[in-house]
Design goal:
single chain; alpha+beta; Beta-lactamase; Lipocalin; 12 helices; globular; Beta-lactam-related; Class A beta-lactamase-related serine hydrolase
């Protein structure tokens, strides 16, 4: 009788957990409904436990012009999540004896400054000191044009190193472009083929591949930015991001990949432990993604108007990912809400109340602002849709008024507090504060 009683109590506790989670998932449904009805987010989300999908949602359009709705099979460009695939392939090469973490890169790229000091490990962990070529001021002038290996290596090698190898860490897409070519050299096949044969086929990722020109007829999403409606973004030519950001996928496939990675079905435990060892904020193709007291790992991505996140909580065997082709909110807020729903923790639903600013008042904020704290200048302009901001070398984005003299760009967590009388502005982002003055 005692055993039966304990079993009954355990069953009832389990049922209560499921009911609480169901209520939270209904609340999560409400969040996505609010996002869609307010034109705040388009994309797909999925969460899986131990390989089984427990929640998924898609909203918005893969193609707004043709009113092609997104669904759970829609494929998105996932940007820098590709780096997790590249890192995995690199550890495969190491396990096969084709590379080592301490091998320097001068035999591959003698033209790169400090090539004799830079190792495979430095590339993986962003400790090479190699300039990030996508930060070039003219990048947006040629990112839609195809580039050859020779051209890309030249674009990377023509810039001076920004720090001594292994002295610190700083994110650089150039590292993973070079890793792409190194993998092709040692495996003697294309990066596209490597992703397909070593990851996609073994894991049966039917909607994951290295992207080409977007084909909406094959349920591939276009990407957008929002002014007064969703405006289509230009496409980066996928000969440029390669192993740094050329992958297309779905949240379901991404969850299957990261679950297999942490289940040691792709690389050995020792390799995985090395991959997720964090130094100066960086692992090797992976970041930490904490949630309350839980330690998670993953990566985010962004390319054109696409943004994405992929994460995994090893102790809970929980994978979670989102892919977006149009966003006016911070993806991290969506992810936190989704995890809160799963673990039955509280989260708030947004209201998106707007603050009305008359068009004639917007002229008070127009100008080019500079700061003594950082070299990034910000140009504020007025358009028919409102106030636009553009940082040096970056695309413009629409600011949203939230209170008097205060505007935000939620997608990037940017807040700008203007003081028209002193022609100044305070920029807040990621916990940092920068003082700007109009030139």
């Amino acid at each position: 009788m005692k055993k039966i009683g304990l079993a009954l109590i355990s069953f009832l506790l389990f049922q209560n957990i499921l009911l609480a989670q169901e209520r939270q998932f209904e609340k999560l449904d409400s969040l996505f409904t609010i996002l869609e009805s307010n034109n705040r987010w388009m994309g797909s989300f999925s969460m899986s436990h131990d390989g089984t999908t427990v929640y998924e949602k898609s909203l918005g359009f893969a193609d707004t012009e043709n009113q092609q709705k997104a669904d759970n099979h829609t494929k998105y460009r996932v940007g820098s999540i590709t780096k997790m695939f590249t890192s995995t392939l690199t550890f495969m090469a190491i396990e096969e004896g084709l590379l080592s973490l301490d091998r320097t890169i001068e035999t591959f790229f003698p033209e790169i400054e400090n090539a004799g000091k830079i190792t495979i490990g430095h590339l993986l962990s962003h400790r090479s000191g190699i300039f990030n070529f996508t930060s070039s001021e003219d990048y947006l002038e040629w990112h839609t044009e195809p580039k050859s290996r020779k051209e890309l290596v030249h674009l990377i090698s023509e810039k001076e190193s920004i720090f001594e190898p292994n002295s610190k860490a700083e994110y650089s897409n150039s590292n993973y472009i070079l890793l792409t070519f190194i993998l092709e050299d040692v495996f003697k096949t294309s990066y596209t083929d490597l992703v397909d044969t070593k990851i996609v086929q073994p894991l049966k990722l039917g909607r994951t591949q290295i992207g080409k020109h977007i084909k909406t007829s094959e349920n591939e999403a276009l990407s957008y930015r929002f002014t007064d409606s969703w405006i289509e973004e230009k496409e980066t030519d996928m000969s440029i991001p390669l192993g740094a950001g050329a992958l297309i996928s779905t949240p379901t496939d991404l969850n299957r990949f990261i679950t297999a990675l942490f289940s040691e079905k792709l690389i050995e435990k020792e390799s995985l432990n090395t991959m997720k060892t964090i130094s100066d904020g960086y692992g090797m193709g992976i970041f930490q993604m904490p949630f309350y007291d839980k330690k998670g790992y993953g990566h985010n991505g962004g390319i054109d108007g696409f943004t994405s996140m992929l994460g995994y909580l090893p102790e809970d065997k929980l994978a979670f990912s989102l892919t977006s082709n149009g966003s006016r909110v911070n993806n991290n807020d969506i992810m936190v809400a989704a995890l809160s729903a799963y673990f039955d923790k509280p989260f708030d639903l947004p209201s998106f109340k707007s603050f009305v600013v008359q068009p004639e008042a917007l002229a008070l904020y127009v100008g080019t602002y500079s700061s003594e704290q950082i070299p990034l200048k910000i140009t504020i302009t007025q358009s028919e849709n409102g106030l636009m901001a553009q940082a040096t070398g970056q695309p413009s984005f629409l600011l949203e008024a939230v209170e008097k003299d205060v505007f935000e760009f939620n997608q990037a967590g940017v807040r700008m507090e203007f003081e028209p009388s002193s022609k100044s502005m305070v920029l807040k982002q990621g916990g940092a504060t920068y003082n700007y003055q109009i030139e």
